[in-house]
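Input record (one chain):
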Amino acid sequence: MADVEGIKVANYDLKDRGLYYSEKYSIPIIHNNLKAPYLMLDSTTKLCYQTNCLENNFNKGKFKTRISNFQSESHIKKAIGYSENTQQTILDITGGLGHDAFIMALLGEKITLIEKNIGLCILIEEALENLPTEPYFSKAKSNITVINSDSRKFAQKADEFDVIFADPMFNSQKKLKKTKQMEFLDVYLEEHDDPSIDFYETEFKRMVVKKDLRSLSGIIEDPAISFKGRSVKFDVYFGGAL
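The corresponding structure, as predicted from the sequence alone:
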């Protein structure tokens, strides 16, 4: 799996952020572009690799539209067993760009997001850092803890969470038209992991696996229930720690 090998601070006002990430993740500050993946801190933070860059801004583009309608996320709400009267603890074992985690945090859930790729962790942290100052954004931000790790290290703690959430990318059996973000991640990550298979063997309470609508399950057994949208589905499994 590729990962960032340097941080370039293109905007001097962000030098402290650059030093923070450099120390936190043991990544050097660089002054020139790399052939290897690197992070560029500018007015918009970018993860760059080869000739392309990836942005992750929660407040613009298609995801901004999704955020503005987060209460309408009926499939994910049903899948996680959402109740406006109860805050759940959710372990997101495939953090990615943090989009689903942020939606669930906006809904009031307490999210522990695990992502083993440092570059993606920083993109998530930057997206959270650059949110507008509205109270509901601040509250959602406080509901998310981002951890750089292999989520399998948390497998023995699965029963401590109300929900295990997984989105193993690129799992369709058919060739699909990918967004620019997905195309970048396909090249950058090189390989794609599905820890939900490992977590299925644990004492989880409830596990939600988000997949392309036409994909097969990586888990042998059929889900207890599946909530299907236009292009994705949320397969729900119930475990022994109930």
